[in-house]
């Protein structure tokens, strides 16, 4: 499995990244206004919707499903650390289709992802873990970068294990955990 492409410097900077989460309502409002002024209304709403100082774990699936192992591990980790969960389904499959079929493929992906995330959502709610769900098109690395800009309080990223590792494993499965604090210097 490819480790996120954060080790190479992005030479073409074409997006605004939030570098730190402000701790006051006024500072958050100012950030939200700045995003709204440049047309990023959804980003502005998300900044204002997040509780102050909320720490987050992003759980990423490159498809429509979250495995039982990833569901159990992510909820247990979020509960133990008192973090929120940001579940993300991402894919590039519809982007490879002819344009007339892309819209239908995206709609099917969204519908299946929304239905399949219910187990994770219910388990999080039953454990008093705050939960959000996103469905994004694009490569996993790009989606994580984009969402990290919106949610700078995100500390960890959890993903499904590499399929090749799963084939070779006999028993216990390790869930990959990426610490965003380790990568902050490389994102700049």
How would you portray this structure in words?
- The chain contains eight helices and five strands, in the order ααβαβααβαβαβα.
- The protein folds into two domains: 16-51, no CATH class; 54-187, 3-Layer(aba) Sandwich (Rossmann fold), CATH 3.40.50.620.
- The protein is globular and about 50 Å long.
- It is an alpha/beta fold and 188 residues long.
- Residues 1-23 have low confidence and may be disordered.
- It has a five-stranded mixed β-sheet, with helices on both faces.
Provide a compact summary of the structure.
This protein is an alpha/beta fold.
Layout of strands and helices, then pairs:
Blueprint: H1 25-37, H2 41-49, E1 56-61, H3 68-81, E2 84-91, H4 99-116, H5 118-126, E3 131-137, H6 140-150, E4 154-159, H7 163-168, E5 177-179, H8 180-187
Parallel strand pairs: 1-2, 1-4, 2-3
Antiparallel strand pairs: 4-5
Helix pairs in contact: 1-2, 3-5
| Strand order across the largest sheet | 3-2-1-4-5
CATH superfamily of the largest domain: HUPs
Q: Nearest-angstrom radius of gyration?
A: 17 Å
The largest sheet, given as strand count, sense and whether it forms a barrel, is:
5 strands, mixed
**Which structural class matches the secondary elements?**
alpha/beta
Secondary-structure element series: HHEHEHHEHEHEH
**Averaging pLDDT over every residue, what do you get?**
79
The global form is globular
Enumerate the spans where pLDDT stays under 50 for 5 or more consecutive residues: 1-23
Strand content: 15-25%
Count of discrete domains: 2
- Helical segment tally? 8
CATH architecture of the largest domain: 3-Layer(aba) Sandwich
Tell how many strands the DSSP assignment holds. Answer: 5
The CATH class of the largest domain:
Alpha Beta
Question: What is the share of helical residues?
Answer: 40-55%
How is the CATH topology of the largest domain named?
Rossmann fold
Distance between the termini: 23 Å
């Amino acid at each position: 499995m490819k480790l996120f492409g954060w080790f190479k410097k992005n030479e073409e900077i074409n997006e605004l990244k939030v570098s730190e989460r402000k701790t006051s309502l006024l500072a958050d409002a100012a950030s939200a206004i700045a995003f709204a002024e440049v047309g990023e209304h959804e980003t502005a709403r998300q900044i204002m919707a997040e509780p102050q100082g909320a720490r987050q774990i992003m759980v990423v699936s490159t498809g429509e499903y979250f495995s039982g192992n990833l569901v159990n591990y992510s909820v247990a980790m979020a509960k133990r650390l008192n973090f929120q969960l940001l579940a993300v389904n991402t894919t590039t499959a519809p982007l490879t289709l002819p344009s007339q079929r892309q819209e239908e493929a995206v709609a099917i992906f969204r519908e299946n992802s929304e239905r399949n995330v219910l187990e994770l959502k219910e388990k999080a709610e039953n454990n008093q873990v705050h939960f959000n769900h996103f469905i994004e098109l694009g490569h996993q690395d790009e989606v994580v970068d984009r969402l990290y800009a919106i949610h700078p309080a995100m500390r960890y990223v959890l993903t499904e294990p590499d399929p090749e590792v799963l084939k070779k494993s006999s028993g216990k499965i390790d869930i990959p955990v990426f610490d965003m604090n380790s990568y902050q210097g490389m994102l700049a």
